[in-house]
Fold this sequence. Notes:
Alpha/beta knot; alpha/beta; 250 residues; CATH 2.40.240.20; single chain; binds S-adenosylmethionine; seven-stranded parallel beta sheet; 35% helix; five-stranded mixed beta sheet; elongated; 2 domains
Amino acid sequence: MYNFFVDGSARTDNGFIIDGKDYNHICNVLRMQVGDTFLVSCEGMSSLCRLAQVHKESVVAEIVEENYRNTELPVRFYLFQGLPKGDKMELIIQKTVELGVAGIIPVEMSRCIMKLDEKKKKTRKERWQSIAESAAKQSKRNVVPEVCDVLTYKQAIEKAAEMDVFLLPYENELGMAETKRALSRIKEGMSVGILVGPEGGFDNKEVELAREIGAFVISLGNRILRAETAAITAVAMGMLHVEMNMEGDE
Ligand code: SAM
């Protein structure tokens, strides 16, 4: 079923007014007819809606069932990602949004090969946000995770340290004891920061700075994973831990 994201200003007493590019998608691309149903996600909640009226520049969607399906995790995972080369960030965003990440923060690290000037940071951010939106639609998320501005390493670890749990998957960490200990600290309603390095990995000093401010330095297993595999694995590990141990587990 198609899913459209709107902000609170689109809300009416019993539905939503949809305009702009989603209006074009509904009328001219999908050629929906009055009576067709779709999902509308607004402020973290999805409603099953039917197309009630079609106007010249907008459509009226009438709510059939509110709070139709909550697909959001009861824990907010934020991926802090050392900027990888080429278009790998796009894959990381697409896959981790599907897995349920709450937000993505690109990070400049000492071993990043990719360097972005201010203009590129802005254009990349727009592209990354549109990838997050497509992935959120495809995976029937209730919210579109935000792709934030690129942060320096210092800014990133300070922000990650504000979270309830801060995980740092490190390629040189051995054994899974710390990984298990860190996962056991994650409880419903918490925020969790996950900081993954770029292709070149972490500089030792970066790891020690993060450890000093409370990061759990963890292993993702005995093999060295590519940056994109590590990001997807770390978020999948968190997501499955939460899905298997919290709310609605049967
Ligand atoms: N250049 C590094 C090397 O050869 O050892 C590998 C860096 S790896 C490609 C990129 C990032 O993925 C790492 O900085 C780390 O965050 C994560 N990573 C990869 N394998 C991992 C593992 N087995 N355990 C924990 N983190 C891992």
